[in-house]
């Protein structure tokens, strides 16, 4: 496992990190959660990413129990705030009271007195940016988080926050980024790099599409997410006839390079210096080990050129969709 510095912070994170979005929030049994987490440590993974909204606290509680058996300085822990935590429509967002309430609740579930990275899960267009920035800074000032980050913010929103608090406010950005979703390259990566902000990318395997589990002309596997989920969310952005055909063209490229499709996909996002870590999910320990093998793989120019040719027009390369990054910034009157 190789490690990279996270933005302007003194945090060093593993190139492959373990996430808990669709797995440890209730989709995976407790014994599997523990087995995958222990496999991550065994593989050299030291960066663990979760969120309060994953299972409405379930993922944090699961890791709070498991990580408590490891020295606190042996891993980097990140969580997030923004999503709805109850049926009360007011119980979400980035208002000062909400952030203050949710960080304390997250720390209780995680059984720790601080997280290393606290991230705004999305932008809150209903709360003044000044209030958001001040509330996040207060979390750090209170010693409850060491550093701050954000996920799926637009360039306008990032600049607005930096204009208020300076480039040291954030050390990380968490966008969706993969061979099939290249939108962050349009503007986000350059803007963040100029301000000392690293990328922690989610869905680097494009919701599993880049593992090759979906084949042209064949029904979706019964145990796959596509067979059971609506195509209106993140899955629908990267799974279609064009992307499945593109992945099929990637198979011989991976084989020729002596790699699995998973290794090729993860090494592709890690080819960018702006990317500090790629977040992967796993429901079985063997998946953790397979993902970890991608760390340190350096793709040759010939392989990268072949990948570009194989992908063709399948990837999304333009600005991110509003559904993932609510547009606009509200200021105090």
Kindly report the average pLDDT value: 93
CATH class annotation: Alpha Beta
The outline comes out as: globular
CATH topology: TIM Barrel
Report the order of strands and helices.
Answer: EEEHEHEHEHEHEHEHHHHEHH
In short:
This protein is of the alpha/beta class. It is 37% helix and 13% strand. It has a single domain, classed as Alpha-Beta Barrel (TIM Barrel).
SSE diagram, text form:
Layout: E1 3-5, E2 12-14, E3 16-19, H1 30-42, E4 47-49, H2 58-67, E5 76-81, H3 96-110, E6 115-120, H4 129-141, E7 145-150, H5 155-165, E8 172-173, H6 188-194, E9 198-201, H7 225-228, H8 234-238, H9 241-256, H10 261-270, E10 275-280, H11 285-292, H12 301-311
Parallel strand pairs: 3-4, 3-10, 4-5, 5-6, 6-7, 7-8, 8-9, 9-10
Antiparallel strand pairs: 1-2
Helix pairs in contact: 1-2, 1-11, 2-3, 3-4, 9-12
Kindly describe this structure.
This protein is α/β, with parallel strands linked by helices and 333 residues long. The protein has one domain: Alpha-Beta Barrel (TIM Barrel). It contains 12 helices and 10 strands. The protein has helices spanning 30-42, 58-67, 96-110, 129-141, 155-165, 188-194, 225-228, 234-238, 241-256, 261-270, 285-292, 301-311, and strands spanning 3-5, 12-14, 16-19, 47-49, 76-81, 115-120, 145-150, 172-173, 198-201, 275-280. An 8-stranded parallel beta barrel has the order 3-4-5-6-7-8-9-10, surrounded by 5 helices. A two-stranded antiparallel ribbon has the order 1-2. β1 (3-5) and β2 form a beta hairpin. The radius of gyration is 19 Å and the shape is globular. The mean pLDDT is 93.
